[in-house]
Amino acid sequence: MLGRDGEARLKQLAARAPESLTVTEYGEWLGLVLLGEWMEHPLEGRSQAEAGLHLAEQLLRVRGKDGLLRPLLANRVQRMYETHRGRSNIVLKARQMGISTWVAGRMFLRTILRPGTLSVQVAHNQTAAEEIFRIVQRFYDNLPVELRESVLCRSRDNRRQMVFPRLDSEYRVESAADVNAGRGLTMQNLHCSEVARWPGDAAATLAGLRAALAPEGELVVESTPQGAFGCFYDLWHQAGNEDSGASSMVRHFFPWWWEDSYTGAPVGVEAQTPEERQLADREGLTEAQIGFRRQQRSQFRAIGRQEYAEDVASCFLASGDCIFDVVRLERRLQAASDPVERGEGGRLWIWFPAQAERKYVLGVDPAGGGADGDFSAVQVVDLKTGLQCAEWQARCPVSETAAVAVRIARRYGGATIAVERNNHGSGLLAHLELQKQDEQGVTIYMQGNVAGWPTTAHTRPAMLARVGAALEDAGELFQSRRLLGECKTMVRQRNGKAAAAAGCHDDCVMAMAVALSVRAELLPAGKKRGAD
Questions:
Q1: In this structure, are 350 and 476 located in the same domain?
Q2: Helix 398-411 and helix 425-438, axial crossing angle in degrees, nearest 10
Q3: What is the spatial distance between Cα 292 and Cα 440, in angstroms, rounded to a whole number?
């Protein structure tokens, strides 16, 4: 404890108007706070948000865009975040708004003000992690020397880690590329930065980190958008859904014009497009801000709406990486309905039950069945119309997938079973051949004398193009939100190949691609599109 004299001095300093305290007095006050663990209301008569803003300005130093060292004086975005933040937060923002710096400063202060605190920031890659740690290092280097040489002396400050032994507190900056990030820790503060760009299975990485956060810990998940899919996209929308477990998260959205430095050559009202004038009138933008917007749209083109977000809907849809029309996908997702029936233990979703006079094709995309691997999927389409009638998806061995495919085919009047014969497909076809010998009515698609459909570097682009054409010409044929969601994650990789984004799956898409491709071969020319 501080003792009577220490408590008296603490109260004397805390009762003063914050603007009247010198940096030296703040050093004295901060030392008393640390020693006495007296932290809930650091400045008498001030809200916690006001206290946090003032402490950041008095104690923390940052390098401005002009290269000069200056106090961390909160900008509009940082002030708004600090005022409205909760215990659990998700931040959607335009690029370079200062959120990462502000959260780093806030968590650094909490680390040195509350003994026994572990704060962890997780960046999307090692380069970003090192940059964040440089910001934190600058915070420390510019604290009053009397603090750095006493209560805030460090036992370790390497490998993106600061340890304060006298406080039993620690600050770490990790990379999401490290699969062991945060493992075995109990954190009081967690900041997950640029989550939309995390590699690998971002959802699993984030879930592991959140599990390590103490029950009363503070969470910040932030990112600029990158396509209408993935972990961050899903979490943002779950945060606004009362039925979701993430509904308690506070959502913060910061458009580009909240950053004062985003100005360019002025564009007069008479030279503005109707869209520009409408935006300027609605948001009160200046001619210089419209000039900046026009400049960025010219430079970034399709992804300008993503990098410099203006509204939630368009910034997610702006990614140029998706191989399908994202706007059409979103519209179809809004219109899609729930299955009218479920079977196979809830894994088979049925929108249109079999009709005796119609014929059907099953597209099958098999997988190995591992607990953490890909799914196997089956799509049922009407041969004449291309209408998606049913969908099945599960992780299971190929023998079980074969048995399920047979049961679904029999349910749909002996439908043709078209299996992607690559990899696990050969094993599934072997099981189907055995069942064909034992049961009547099992029809396996044959290409020439070979069973199954080949997905190769030559056929794959045409298969996916067929799915895209169906979406564009008759998107109402697609019923499954799961399928449509996977379509949004199909992106163009750096090598030019179209594949599911990191941490996502494409089994429903590929099963549909097989079904539509085989349908095109089985249906007579001139009857391959449109409903009857």
A1: yes
A2: 50
A3: 69
Determine which helix (DSSP H) or strand (DSSP E) holds 214, and give its type and residue range: strand 213-223
Q: Is 66 exposed, middle or buried (0-12, 13-18, 19+ CB in 10 A)?
A: exposed
What percent of the chain has pLDDT above 70? Answer: 83
Apex CA 530: angle with CA 525 and CA 532, to 5°? 95
Using DSSP, state whether 434 is helix, strand or coil.
helix
Pairing between β-strand 388-394 and β-strand 348-350 as defined by DSSP bridges: antiparallel
Cα 221 to its chain centre, rounded Å, is 9
Instruction: Give bridge partners of residue 483 from the DSSP assignment.
Output: none
Token pair 């000069």 is found at 68
* Cα separation, 467 vs 515, whole angstroms: 10
**Cα–Cα distance list, 146 to 30, 38, 261 (Å):** 11, 19, 36
Q: Are residues 466 and 486 in the same domain?
A: yes
Instruction: Give the side-chain half-sphere CA count within 13 A for 308.
Output: 20
- CATH code: domain of residue 196: 3.40.50.300
Q: pLDDT digit string (tens) for 84-125?
A: 999 999 999 998 899 999 999 999 998 988 888 999 999 998
Give the Cβ contact number of residue 342 at 10 Å: 13
Domain limits for position 450: 326-522
Half-sphere exposure of 110 (CA within 13 A, CB side): 22
Task: State the residue for tokens 């964040």.
Answer: 132
Helices (H), 85-175: 99-113, 126-141, 145-148
Instruction: Report how many domains make up the chain.
Output: 3
Using DSSP, state whether 42 is helix, strand or coil. Answer: coil
What angle, 0 to 180 degrees and rounded to 10, lies between the N-to-C axes of helices 459-474 and 326-335?
60
Cα(270)–Cα(238) distance, rounded to whole angstroms? 42
Q: Does position 28 have pLDDT exceeding 70, yes or no? A: no
